[in-house]
Amino acid sequence: MKKLIIHGGRRLSGEVTIGGAKNSTVALIPAAILAETPVKFDSVPDILDVYNLQAILSSMNVNSTFKGGELMIDPTAIVESELPSTAIKSLRASYYFMGSLLGRFGRATVTFPGGDNIGPRPIDQHIKGFEALGATVYEENDTVYINAENGLKAARIFLDVVSVGATMNIIMAAVHAEGTTILENAAREPEIIDLATFLNNMGAQIRGAGTDVIRITGVSRLESKNTHTIIPDRIEAGTYLALAAAQGDGVLVKNVIPEHLESFTAKLLEMGVKLDVREDSIYVPKSVDLQPIQIKTAPFPGFATDLQQPVTPLLTLANGESVVHETIYPERTRHVPELQKLGMVVSNPEHGKMVVAQCSDFHGARVSAAEIRAGAALVSAGLMADGVTEVINAEHVLRGYDRIVYKLTMLNADIEIAEE
């Protein structure tokens, strides 16, 4: 087990370059096995999830190499095999292998994945989509068995709830289905557009990604002809923007797509953070006299649930009480008691509602990262606090943030990884 040791109170300045999107990467890697040729990605984030996905690929005789942000995957000798439960259980996004294996082989067996514990995230919409395409699905002992003996056939599918995971999984399963699948009430996140772009460049026929109606016309073969560059990580970008507003003396956040962050940057501007939004970067000056705000999480293009925790430490600097309503995952509040240990005044959440009061007397403490974004909030709070903060269960943070210790060190933070 690893921990992060933070000597807080230092002001941050300089520039930081955002890596490729984690939430794209963890779907693109499973999608690579749909290809009949080697696949190459660049701007791949250096996070633990990538290495766990490589272990899963290796179990299927799929070779991969990862160096300097470039990931090569060769699925040409792929074989069906039992996926390693250790890697599966450490990584929620391993459920994307359900869609890619179903698309590739017409069947899939996947142990129910682990990953972040932020309350129930059922896969019923994934299963609904697979069954509509002609597969039979049953669950037993935390394992999902999917089989389309008679092949996959196009269908009209309406998602009962907007689900990023189900949208991506159904796209991957449907790329080889016979006919044109129409997916309605689909999620609209930029990462879905990224997945569709990757598949379309290999010969898939996917239209409407980024809207709530996506049409997938099945094709018989996918071939990679060029390198796919993964989009910048809007959640990593938002985390650094919030930290720069809270503790920075002038920070330039590079390699961002500002349009992907509009709901988030609008709230920073509402607080009084004087952002300088440029073509592919955002400059955050030293921020003073911040005002309280209200945040309500929503599916894209609304305020991302993944950013409500990283922004919470910043809210403690506002002149009054801010309110956060978590509507996507009401149980995503495990950062609150840990922030309280650091001296932050955040009410105990009720039905996903948190009240954040003004406070400036932060002190170091030993805290635990329950999941990726909670861990990011604790890192930010530790950098703002006086004294030493230890963030245990740091693997959660390392799963989702590209070279976070290096990047923060380059911004003048005093942070290191140590063994627990």
From TrEMBL:
Q: Which residues bind UDP-N-acetyl-alpha-D-glucosamine?
A: 92, 121-125, 306, 328
The GO terms describing molecular function are:
UDP-N-acetylglucosamine 1-carboxyvinyltransferase activity
Example GO BP: peptidoglycan biosynthetic process
Starting at the broadest rank, the lineage of the source organism is:
Bacteria, Bacillati, Bacillota, Bacilli, Lactobacillales
Q: In which pathway does it act?
A: Cell wall biogenesis; peptidoglycan biosynthesis
Where does the record locate the signal sequence feature?
none
Name of the featured protein: UDP-N-acetylglucosamine 1-carboxyvinyltransferase
Q: Cellular component GO terms, alphabetically?
A: cytoplasm
Positions of the Enolpyruvate transferase domain: 7-408
Organism equals Weissella hellenica
Q: What is its EC number?
A: 2.5.1.7
Keyword Zinc-finger present in the record's keywords: the answer is: no
